[in-house]
Amino acid sequence: MNTTKFLLLVTIAVGLSLSALVSSADAAAPGHAAFGGAGGARPDGKAAMFYDALAPHGDWFRHDRYGWVWSPRNVGYGWRPYTEGSWAYTDLGWTWNSDLEWGWAPFHYGRWAYETNGWVWVPDDVWAPAWVAWQMGDPWCGWAPLPPLVAWESRPAWDALIPPFCWSFVDMRFLPVRELRGHIVPAARNVTLLHETKNVTQFTLNSERQIVSSGVDPARVERAVGHPLPRLRIENVTTAPRSAGAAVQQDKVLVFRPDLVRTPRPVAPALNGAPEASRQSGTVPITGIAAPTAPTFSREFLQAQEAERRQLAEEQAAEAARLVEIHRRELAQPPGGMSLPSVAQRHLEEHRAFNEQIGRQNQLFEQHVQQGWGMHGSGRR
User: Fold this and answer.
1) What is the pLDDT of residue 258?
2) What are the residue ranges spanned by the domains of the chain?
């Protein structure tokens, strides 16, 4: 049997096994359990500015490396920052308009990091249109949250610093659409799309000392969508939004900025002192997590937990089906003149990434179940 036939058979066999793998996975539904308290203390410093607004939507705790951090509740185990909302091109560059009620803060201030217990937000008091890295390469455009403790003007190789599963990619023609989430490709594809795109992240300061996200060339996006993009103007407001979603009014975007007087200042790079495992995996240990107490189960609790397992299993199966369908189309018509062996190798890498994704989600679920036992009856998820 020649190499081409062998690779094709392996690709098809792995693809057909995805749904079976997902159906038997130990899964959970969206929602984060509390990470454990910090003695009832209120955050100080930069976190204090956001504590009251974010406390109803997530959990604050102390982190060994970052100090006070916040983790959202009621987001999926496959959730990533900057996926529920849309991009608008404004006078400050590409600006994220969140569909989440609390999105005015964590997507414009501070940084996100993926830890062993899920996504956490590290507060800061400098506003930006979006704290993300960008990758571009026809026809793809991708973004990912910038990691903490790295200077925003340093322009490192973000694709090397940020784990592949943290990125979100879309066909460039869908970048400005309102229903963006439905166009984000399966996260397993990121391992190959990062090789087919290049880093275009760029932050600058305008004449008013405001941060501008200027890495993604709007002309390239306009060629992809086939028409000019509207140029919107940022207008600051003094009260937090009352509902989810951005306040877009004709030619402007209303944004809540509780701290308008500070001059943007870069954060000093702090990579050299990081543990080797942290630099490779994007994870560091979290402290302050209480050990689970002896569980006291109610029927309702057990039913809810089982429903959560079924829900995530369904989500994982749907993601597997999307990936298998994409691979089927690419085998029938290889993209960009790729050879069949190259397509098959690409699919194998994505299958491995998908399996890692399933394992990561299931591990996160089990950790949160254990922590949830100690909070049973508290009314928190």
Assistant:
1) 81
2) 3-29+291-373, 45-281
pLDDT at 297: 64
CA dihedral sign, ordered 17, 19, 23, 28 = positive
Q: How far is CA 47 from CA 67, 69, 221, 281, 331, in A?
A: 9, 8, 36, 26, 50
Rounded CA gap, 168 and 49, in Å? 29
Per-residue pLDDT, 26: 37
pLDDT at 130: 96
Name, in order, each residue with C-beta under 8 angstroms of 220's C-beta and a sequence gap of 6 or more. 136, 138, 172
Cα-based distances in Å from 321 to 15, 306, 316: 9, 23, 9
**Number of residues written out for the chain:** 381
d(CA 74, CA 77): 9
Q: Are strands 252-256 and 233-237 parallel, antiparallel or unpaired?
A: parallel
Phi, psi for residue 71 in degrees, rounded to 5? -125, 130
Q: Using CA atoms, how far apart are residues 361 and 356, in angstroms rounded to an integer?
A: 9
Q: Is the peptide bond before 148 cis (omega within 30 degrees of 0)?
A: no
- Report the chain (381 residues): mean pLDDT per 10 consecutive residues: 44 45 38 41 86 94 94 92 95 94 94 92 95 95 93 77 95 94 96 94 92 93 95 86 67 82 45 34 34 57 82 93 95 90 94 94 85 42 33
Residues 6 or more apart in contact with residue 3 via CB below 8 angstroms: 341
CA geometry: angle 361, 362, 363, nearest 5 deg = 95
Residue 366: its pLDDT value, please? 86
Rounded Cα–Cα distance for residues 333 and 314 (Å): 29
Q: What is the DSSP letter of 197?
A: S
Q: Are strands 111-115 and 118-122 parallel, antiparallel or unpaired?
A: antiparallel
Phi first, then psi, for residue 331 (nearest 5°) are -70, -35
What is the C-alpha R_g of the chain? 21
Q: How far is residue 240 from each of residues 101, 102, 252, 363, measured CA to CA in Å?
A: 9, 9, 17, 36
